[in-house]
Design goal:
The complex is a heterodimer of chains A (113) and B (110). With 113 residues, chain A is an all-beta fold. Chain A is 0% helix and 55% strand. In chain A, the strands form 2 sheets. In chain A, strands 2, 4, 5, 6, 9, 10 and 11 form a 7-stranded mixed sheet that branches. In chain A, strand 4 and strand 5 form a beta hairpin.
Chain lengths: 113, 110
């Protein structure tokens, strides 16, 4: 089992640019989560998908953030336009089903200059 | 989801048991207690979870008090690789939503 796969692992971009983070959940998992981690705010849930459908996006900070899950094996988190305050580590996690144990990916370290 | 209180940091000698406490006095009857840890620069890692009964797996043991208002995570023989931030989380009833607090920084020293 390869675990949750995220790409890129590191991203450096300039303010105003579009950033796309990618996640491949564990095969057979139906639930997918995007989190953001900063020193100031800790680990925060951004959005939750179940069976490819967004269920809870109340944690998405603002309209600059969007997330999609076109199929069971792929999800994206897009920031457009990016701002320096978006600098953080973004984690993707998946679980077999709603309410089951979440398994986290290695994260994407984003730096917006 | 109920709020948890954990000590900011703890130390443990290598080879000894590490006992990490967590207070969750407002836990409701159907909420689980989850423990995750995060080793530096890695994603959080699931350790164990429980509802009422004590639980044990290959990584740790979870002791939940009878009134469920507190719990203790036990790493029976801590190693240097167990140095990490340990998160106690209560919830999971709403689609498994986890709300992470600040956790306990556990440092295992030789």
């Amino acid at each position: 089992d390869a675990g949750v796969i995220q790409s890129p692992r590191h991203e450096v971009t300039e303010m105003g640019q579009e950033v796309t983070l990618r996640c491949k959940p564990i095969s057979g998992h139906n639930s997918l989560f995007w989190y953001r981690q900063t020193m100031m705010r800790g680990l925060e849930l951004l959005i939750y998908f179940n069976n490819n459908v967004p269920i809870d996006d109340s944690g998405m900070p603002e309209d600059r953030f969007s997330a999609k899950m076109p199929n069971a094996s792929f999800s994206t988190l897009k920031i457009q336009p990016s701002e320096p305050r978006d600098s953080a580590v973004y984690f993707c996690a998946s679980s077999r089903g709603s309410g089951e144990t979440q398994y986290f990916g290695p994260g994407t370290r984003l730096l917006v200059l | 989801d109920a709020k948890t209180t954990q000590p900011t940091s703890m130390d443990c000698a290598e080879g000894r048991a590490a006992n990490l406490p967590c207070n969750h006095s407002t836990i409701s009857g159907n909420e689980y207690v989850y423990w995750y840890r995060q080793i530096h620069s890695q994603g959080p890692q699931y350790i164990i979870h429980g509802l009422k009964n004590n639980e044990t797996n290959e990584m740790a043991s979870l002791i939940i008090t009878e009134d469920r208002k507190s719990s203790t995570l036990i790493l029976p023989h801590a190693t240097l690789r167990d140095t990490a931030v340990y998160y106690c989380i209560v919830g999971g009833t709403s689609y498994g939503k986890l709300t992470f607090g600040q956790g306990t920084i556990l440092t295992v020293h030789p």
